[in-house]
Design goal:
Layout: H1 2-7, H2 13-20, H3 26-36, H4 39-59
């Protein structure tokens, strides 16, 4: 996985997930539950807010 990221940084996270997870396995089930509860959206919002706050703090 690390080599894949170094050699192909544009590889979509879902492709990487599918390479390291077993179909029907525990990881896929757990990730599916996170996706159903908008986990990705929450992470994106958290990063955006942290970035915004960082810029605000940098101005003072």
């Amino acid at each position: 996985l690390e080599e894949e990221l170094k050699n192909n940084p544009e590889t979509h996270p879902y492709v990487l997930r599918n390479r390291v997870s077993s179909p029907g396995g525990t990881t896929i089930y757990g990730l599916s539950k996170l996706e159903k509860n908008a986990f990705s959206h929450a992470i994106i919002e958290a990063v955006e807010e942290a970035s915004k706050r960082s810029k605000e703090l940098g101005k003072s």
